[in-house]
Every structure is written in C-alpha cells, then in structure tokens.
Amino acid sequence: MAFWKMSGSGNDFIIIDNRDGKMNKFDPRQFIPKICARSLSVGADGVFYIENSDEADFQWQFFNSDASVAEMCGNGARCVARYAFLNGIAGKNMRFKTLAGIIEAEIKESVNVKVLMTKPFDYKKGIVLDVAGSKRELSFINTGVPHAVILTDDIDTFDVFNTGRAVRYHDYFAPKGTNFNVYAKTGESSFKIRTYERGVENETLACGTGSVACAICAVKDGIAKSPVTLRTMGGTDLMVHIESDEKVFLEGEARVIYTGEFTEESYMY
C-alpha cells in the first residue's frame, strides 16, 4: 500500500489514497494505532484516507493516532490539499468534504497552503474551572474541533501535559472532551503557542485548529489584530487571517517528507 508522509508545521500525517476502497478491509481501530506508533512503524499524529465525493473534489476520513475520529484538522487540511494538488486529484483552488463541513483551500507559493476554515462557534470567555487543584480561567471556542485556551506569561515552563490532560478530561467538557492550548504574546499581533491534542493525548509540535482558536480569542480580547502569527513548538509560523466571525483562514507550510509503501511488518505486530 502506497502512502505519503507529510508535515504541517510539525504535525505529521500519513496520507493514503482510498478512492479505490482498498483500506475498507482494514479495521482502523487495529491498523491506525500500529502505523502511527513511533519507532515501531511509520509514526504520525494522524492518518487521512482520501476518498471520492459527489459534493466536492474529494472527501477525507481522518483518524487521530489512537484511531479516534476527529471532525477537523487545520494542519492536516493543508497537507491533504497539497497532496491532492500534487497527485492531480484537485487544482490549485479546491473544495473537500470533512465531518466539520466543506473546506476550501488554495495552493500558494513554495510549500504554503491557505485554507478557509469551517465557521467557528460556541465562543465563551471567563470559564473558571478547578484544574488539578488550582483555579484556572479559560476561554473556549470550537474551530471545527473544541479548544480550551489560556493566555500565559510563562509559556516555556507551563506544564502543558498535566494541565492539558486535566482540562481535556474535565467534567465541564464531557463527554467528548476538548483540546487545550496555552499561548503567550511575543509581539503586536504575534504569539507563541503550545497545544495538548485530544486523540494524540500528548503535546504536539503544532495544531492548526488550536492556532485559529488562540488567534480568535486574542482578537476578541483586543490584544491582537488580524492577521495573527503564531510560532509553533515545531519552530514554524502559522498565520491566521480573520476577515469576519464566519470567515477565518489558516496559512502555513505543508511539506512532503517522504513517499513509500507499507509492508505487512509495519502493522502486523
């Protein structure tokens, strides 16, 4: 089975063309965690199956590394868009279907891709929760998937894993849980961001929907103006263009790392 390994600002993904249905014989609950296991197989934060669609250029199935299904992934959307363009599945301007709705994407210069995100909703500010024995004030917004957000001054020493895990499983966000982000101001409209991702169950090097969540909260709080730049833990920048409450774009790199073929030994263990 052929696959591509791609990275969107540090989020890495396995992308498989399933327009012929070849992946349907595999149980994703068994297959996905195995090929996403680092050191034992390819390793990735998630897996995309590219499939046919009657409503758009194509559609995807998206699995987190634990085989849970997520509605949307901003960094993954850019990788999938560039994959589709490079493989002749879609043109430079495309539309593809996700569980969060139809995504529009534009292939930019070099390795950059700009995507129109799904309409953000359910913004809340001033949520005070008891998190691991401490009171924390958070904001919340759904940018295709749910995100809790904290603005901090000590982002480099912030305990993202334990705090993120506690927020992710907090009763307030039950039953589906939430992703968790901390961000710190580094310039007039620039920030550094760290994210604990639901489904990966760990801090990741980048999160597109999380970056969009932080950017929207920053603009709503009056501490930034669009476009907002967020430096990820992967060392690259994501740019969020907020044209209105309903029209938000995410722009950043989507790099092809390598192409290959799975052997049975990569998932039969």
TrEMBL record:
Per the record, the major location class is: cytoplasm
Q: Name the top EC class.
A: isomerase
Q: Which InterPro entries match?
A: DAP_epimerase_DapF
Return the Pfam families for the record. DAP_epimerase
What are the BP-aspect GO terms? lysine biosynthetic process via diaminopimelate
EC no. given is 5.1.1.7
Active-site residue numbers: 73 (proton donor), 207 (proton acceptor)
Q: Where is this site: Could be important to modulate the pK values of the two catalytic cysteine residues?
A: 147, 197
Q: Which reaction does it catalyse?
A: (2S,6S)-2,6-diaminopimelate = meso-2,6-diaminopimelate
* A GO term, aspect molecular function: diaminopimelate epimerase activity
Residue numbers binding substrate: 11, 64, 74-75, 179, 197-198, 208-209
Keywords annotated in UniProt: Amino-acid biosynthesis, Cytoplasm, Isomerase, Lysine biosynthesis
So which domain of life are we looking at?
A: Bacteria
Would the keyword Transferase be found if you checked this record's keyword annotation?
Answer: no
Which cellular components does GO assign to this protein? cytosol
Pathways per UniProt: Amino-acid biosynthesis; L-lysine biosynthesis via DAP pathway; DL-2,6-diaminopimelate from LL-2,6-diaminopimelate: step 1/1
Which NCBIfam families does the record associate with it?
DapF
Q: What does this protein do?
A: Catalyzes the stereoinversion of LL-2,6-diaminopimelate (L,L-DAP) to meso-diaminopimelate (meso-DAP), a precursor of L-lysine and an essential component of the bacterial peptidoglycan.
- Protein name per its UniProtKB record: Diaminopimelate epimerase
Which organism's genome codes for this protein? Geovibrio thiophilus
- Classification of source organism: Bacteria, Pseudomonadati, Deferribacterota, Deferribacteres, Deferribacterales
